[in-house]
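So, who can interpret the following?
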Amino acid sequence: LFYYGWTFFWEFVPVTVMHTIGYPAHNIGYIYMTGALSYVILSLFITRKLMTKIAISLLLPLSIGFLAVCIGITGEMSSSPQLLYLVVVQQFFLSCIYPLFSTYISMNSSEESQGRSLGMLNAVKAMACSLGPLCSGLFFSLSSLVPIIIGVATLSLSSLFAFRFFALQKKAIEVEENF
């Protein structure tokens, strides 16, 4: 759900911002360049340190939730510089999410099934990333804000599911320890 929502938004954010704030088409590359550069820098210098300080069970759902908020704010942008600053903030949360998914699966898989589990994660990611653009054509004709709406909705649900999953996992561990 997370991968689908993020891809749906990220693939079509240029069309949305061209329509809502009149972002020049010839500057669209700046959005992706800013995103890629900030993702790499944040991953190298901040995210790794943050992941060692905050539990995955808290950092993952919060990162997804705050990314949903950032996506919602995209529709309210009124200038190009604001948009590029927001892209950096979005990439910060994204730079937490991707490694956290892999870390969680790696930590909770046996040595024998670790490769298979990570492969399944990548297969799900690939499927979701291909479904976003396929489905978006149907929805995009309704409004240029549809990528934001679907992005916010799916990421918000993902965040709630993640909070609930970790709460249930914690409860199961407590029951197992008391048994």
